[in-house]
Design goal:
This protein is of the alpha+beta class and 525 residues long. Helix content is 18%, strand content 42%. It has 3 helices and 28 strands. It has helices at 93-138, 144-189, 287-291; strands at 12-13, 17-22, 27-37, 40-49, 59-63, 68-80, 195-206, 210-220, 223-234, 237-248, 254-262, 293-294, 324-326, 331-333, 340-350, 352-357, 366-372, 382-388, 391-398, 406-413, 417-430, 435-448, 458-465, 474-478, 489-490, 495-502, 507-518, 522-523. The strands form 6 sheets. Strands 2, 3, 5, 8, 11, 13 and 14 form a 7-stranded mixed β-sheet that branches. The longest helix has 46 residues, at 93-138. It is flat, with a radius of gyration of 42 Å.
């Protein structure tokens, strides 16, 4: 536990960051420098370092041919005024704007004073003119044309000067408001408050004078990373680039550091879960329960094309084992809190394309690309920027993939294909056994809309599922004779597959027929 203290007047030795291990929600920072020490016990001040450094993780190690020992190491923090802005050839834009507004305000104030003086003089002139008219009328003089012209001229001058004075007053108010905003902005931008800065105080003891290497490490908060990918498809060739998105606002920049990325979760507790009591009770089935078999249809997800969408920023899916990735070259990550891409690896391989559709889930025909993971490391789950020869085509997801394992990416749907699905169901009871037979017919209408001049067939892979029974009282049978055509394959999960070739402008109809047969004891079908 540390508190903000007054800085000690010791010479400060720079302690640059040399290596960073970025974890899922924090970073392990390593620093190194060479100290020129004198013999005996001495106290050093190193830094500055981030004030977010975790005190209990601070570790210092000396390397020297002669004996050198670390007696004490600690982090001290102090409020320090922010340094001046970088020097420029002229004042800042805010100061230039403030000067211009001050000059404009002084000019408007002088103009306002002149207009007020002019209005005062015109008022006196109008009073003198009215007095002259009164005196002339008393002496019997009558010069109506001259008096009317003089009064009109004075009134016109007064109206014009009054309107100009109102315009000047309005502009003065606007200038005063803008000048206040500029002054407040200058208070925030150029007179910055003090910031909390940390330093390392190191007490060492050496037997002889000479250079000593120092390695210091600690954990710090406000740093994280997530994997990201970029897949470029060019014909039958695919290039997959692995990158890391790194965020950090630790209060200092990482310049030319060795960056290591780890999925370790140092904040997770290691205590095993508590065991809870689980009671199982048995009871005899009733006579009605012995005579019937209750079944129900259950949906099971057997595969997908990526992790389920997560609201917000998901964690790193590492398959349950800590994974470590290293940047091939030194990198720089500013401490601005923004996302920065760090290249990790890239490889090219042959890709196998497939146009697939599962009409029960979606009528869209999706362009799937399959390839093997030849990156030299596991692929963590993350977003993928999909790029074709025509440019950026969208964003997908990549699931966790082991080294050498197959990868499947969806490059979006095809607008020139359409699949319409129709289903029919009939229910019947047969003979003396009173077995219930449910017959289902699924028709898939596949169409290809091609542009003029397009040639060549395209194979569309259709997949339709057939229920799989887990009890002997219910049987599922595929009517291959009624299917048109029969499925090319049916796997153990009940997924029927057709490879349908379509010429430009071609249409096909696929028919699937199967039946569910259940004994009279079965209920719920």
């Amino acid at each position: 536990m540390t508190t903000a203290t007054k800085p000690i007047t010791l010479p400060v030795t720079a302690l640059p960051v040399t290596a960073v291990t970025c974890l899922e929600d924090r970073a392990h920072v390593e620093r190194a420098t060479v100290l020129d020490l004198a013999a005996g016990v001495q106290r050093l001040r190193l830094g500055p370092i981030s004030a977010l450094a975790v005190d209990r993780t601070l570790h210092a190690e000396l390397t020297a041919d002669h004996g050198a020992t670390v007696l004490d190491v600690r982090i001290v923090r102090a409020w320090t005024p922010r340094g001046p802005q970088p020097p420029t050839d002229d004042d800042s834009p805010l100061r230039r704007r403030e000067h211009a507004l001050e000059e404009e305000r002084r000019g408007l104030e002088r103009r306002r004073d002149r207009l007020r003086t002019r209005l005062d003089l015109l008022g006196r002139l109008a009073a003198d003119l009215l007095r002259e008219i009164g005196e002339g009328a008393g002496f019997g003089e009558s010069d109506r044309t001259r008096w009317a012209a003089e009064l009109d001229r004075v009134d016109g001058e007064r109206d014009s000067s009054g309107e100009e004075l109102r315009t000047v007053d309005a502009r003065l108010a606007a200038v005063a408001a803008e000048l206040g905003d500029v002054e407040r902005a200058m208070d925030l931008a150029e007179d910055e408050p003090a910031e909390l800065v940390g330093h390392v105080e190191l007490t060492v003891e050496t037997e002889a004078a000479g250079p000593v290497g120092l390695r210091l490490s600690h954990l710090t908060a406000c740093a994280m990373w997530r994997p990201a990918y970029r897949a470029v498809l060019d014909g039958d060739s695919l290039t997959l680039e692995t990158e890391a998105m790194v965020w950090q606002r630790t209060g200092e920049d990482w310049s030319d550091v060795r960056l290591t990325l780890s999925t370790a979760r140092s904040a997770l507790a290691t205590d095993p879960p508590r065991l809870r009591e689980d009671r199982l009770t048995l009871k005899d089935r009733s006579a009605a329960e012995r005579r019937t078999v209750d079944v129900e249809l259950r949906e099971e997800e057997i595969g997908n094309l990526g992790p389920a969408p997560v609201v917000g920023l998901p964690g790193v899916d590492d398959g349950g084992e800590t994974r470590v990735l290293r940047a091939p070259a030194p990198v720089s990550v500013p401490g601005d809190g923004r996302a920065h891409r760090v290249p990790l690896s890239s490889f090219g391989t042959e890709a196998h394309s497939e146009y697939a559709c599962s009409p029960e889930l979606s009528p869209l025909v999706t362009h799937l690309v399959r390839f093997d993971n030849l990156s030299g490391h596991v692929l963590l789950a993350g977003p993928v920027d999909l790029v074709r020869s025509g440019g950026f085509s969208g964003r997908g997801t990549l699931d966790f993939t082991a080294l050498g394992a197959p990868v499947e990416l969806a490059f979006g749907s095809r607008d020139d294909h359409r699949v319409v699905r129709q289903t029919e169901e009939t229910r019947d009871t047969t003979g003396l056994t009173q077995r219930t037979v449910v017959t289902r017919t699924v028709k898939l209408h596949v169409s290809r809309f091609s542009a003029p001049g397009e040639d060549g067939e395209r194979v569309v892979v259709l997949r339709e599922r057939i229920p799989v029974s887990e009890v002997s009282a219910v049987e599922v049978r595929l009517h291959k004779d009624a299917c048109s055509p029969a499925p090319d394959a049916v796997d153990a999960e009940g997924i029927a597959r057709w490879d349908v070739p379509l010429a430009p402008g071609g249409r096909r109809t696929i028919t699937l027929v199967y039946e569910l047969s259940a004994s009279s004891k079965v209920t719920g079908l």
